[in-house]
Amino acid sequence: MLYWAIVFFVIAIIAGVLGFTGIAVGAASIAKIIFMVFIVLFILSLVFGNVRRGGPRL
Questions:
Q1: Domain residue ranges of the chain, discontinuous segments joined by +
Q2: What is the pTM of this model?
Q3: Which residues in the chain show pLDDT less than 50?
């Protein structure tokens, strides 16, 4: 998922440089949404991974 966020970010940069502002804004919006979903899923996997294993062992 992080891969797709980076791909859309690169597309947005290339489209912005070439002057396709509508495409650049759309690609940047998609990249932002995918990145936020990635962050939420990553945090949830960290929390539920520790809960399932009984927490960190010290």
A1: 2-53
A2: 0.70
A3: none
